[in-house]
Structure formats: structure tokens, C-alpha cells
Design brief:
mainly alpha; two-stranded antiparallel ribbon; 7 helices; 2 strands; elongated
Length: about 140
Amino acid sequence: MNPECRLNHASPLKRLAATAIDLGILTVILIPLLIAISQGGMESPWPYILNALPAWLLVAGGNLYILDSSGQTFGKRLMKIRIVALDGSRAPFFKLLLIRYLPFALTLSIPYIGPLVMAALAVTVFRNGQQGFHDRLAGTYVIRT
């Protein structure tokens, strides 16, 4: 591991704030659907889902692009942190996507269990060394930029 990465760790609170920003952006896109569901008079959610789909794809595509180019998501960019490989170099995109993000995003979709797993995952970034479980799996660190 590059000693510079160790000294330049992003704080767990910045990491959690970046995640909250990313989730907040996606939630805002779904507000019309959530309002319609909460009012109960909705015949079908599909018109809302189809209307939100371009925005979701734009946000997801933007996040994937900057994740690939700089190791950041929108939230990480705003919090001035980024993901790097253990040696401080740019983390390979396939590792970020297939090991660090995708398994946990799929887990989140499991009712009741998914949110518990994600909460446990969030707690791991507070451990000594500030490398979360998902970072260990992908061989990455999150550092300040």
C-alpha cells in the first residue's frame, strides 16, 4: 500500500455523506412515483417508472462515467473524495462496478435483509484503517482529493 493513501484517507463521515448525496439524487428522481404510491389512487406505477427511467439512466450513466474516469460518483465529487487502488493508482472500473458496487446494490433490493446488510456495511468504514468490507473485497481505499 502506498503510504500516501494511508495519510490521505477520507473520513468515514465524508464517505457516508457522499453515499447519502448519491442516494438522495436517485430518490429525488423517484418522488413523483413515491407520491403517487402514497396517495393510493394509482392504477399502475408503470407510467411513473417509464417517465423516471431517462433521468435514472442519465444519473446512472453520469455516475458510471465519472466513476470510470476519476474513481468518483457525484456524491464523492461533491465531498472531494475518490476511490483508488491499494497502491494509490486508479482503481480498475470492473472491480469498482462488479465487486465494490453491484453485489451490494443487488443486496439492497432484498426486503428487510438488504437494508440491514447495507447498514452493517456502512459501519465497517468506521473500523481502524477506515477500509470498509467492500473496499477490502475490491482492493480499494477512499482518499481525499
